[in-house]
Structure prediction request, 330 residues.
Amino acid sequence: MDRPWGSPDAATATVRLAVRGGLTECAPGALVLVACSGGADSRALAHAVAVEAPEQGLRAGAVIVDHGIRPESATEAAVVAADLAADGLYPVDVVPVEVVAGSAGLEAAARDARYAALDGAAERHGALLVLLGHTLEDQAEQVLLGLARGSGARSLSGMPAARGRHRRPLLGVTHAQTSASCHEQGLRVVEDPMNRDPAFARVRARHLLLDLEEQLGPGVVAGLARSASLLREDADHLDGLADVEVDRLGAGPWPVMVLGAIPVAVRSRVWRRALLAAGVRAGSLGSRHVDACDRLLTHWHGQGPVHVPGGLLVRRSDDWVRIEPRPRVE
Prediction:
């Protein structure tokens, strides 16, 4: 059903209200870009931004990232671009990327390529913000996947509503609402079949959430998303304490007595910050590396150094711990 923009249905009103709140930080004249795949979530977001941004004196455009994984993706991207331009969004930028699956898998490679493309488009067009269409279900899936991995509070806190130039205004909106909004407004939706492929962990998590809702009753998705919000507050507080300790400790070496007196929940974050500052790449640093370093304090029996990614060693000598380069083998 196609309605006038001024009299939205309930689902569209919910989406627009979320978008309106997400744009209040922008000064008049600023450009915001919507990351749009053509699926219901990002399509509803894009249409809402096309309505709300001009009301706040903002310019609004869109970016469609063509991952090139499927032969028909370029044609689909062109269709989405035409629809967004018809909504009044400008510029509408189609960005093809090359996705090469690495050790982390195709999903991770596609995600990295997508965010790089979005940031590149924002730089080219001088956009203040990039809006992403993640919904309540996406947040719940993120938490569920973190639980399956045995992750800590930071991972279980899900996706932030704001990080850098990225904004997620629909984290409190359901997929049912974005779908209903698209249907009521007669918006064309382009579905990626990969979103139904159980080969991907996120798709399996989505189906599991449906099963949990059926078995445990409605509210599981909302409960997981609410847990993410609460855990984010905890993680932010612990991160702040870790930052204070890192500033106090300095570049190292560090006295075992001082480092060991830091509470474990904070100390693990201190280790992580120290290792990253020494040159370890974030993507290669795992909890097993942090745990091995911490055993130099808690289970010390004269063992050798801990090998961490980036060609580094974490070594304890008597009452001191230091991070140093791994010796070259001639």
Residues 220-249 form the longest helix (30 residues). Strands lie at 31-35, 59-66, 92-96, 129-131, 162-163, 166-167, 254-255, 306-308, 312-317, 320-325. The radius of gyration is 23 Å. The chain has twelve helices and ten strands.
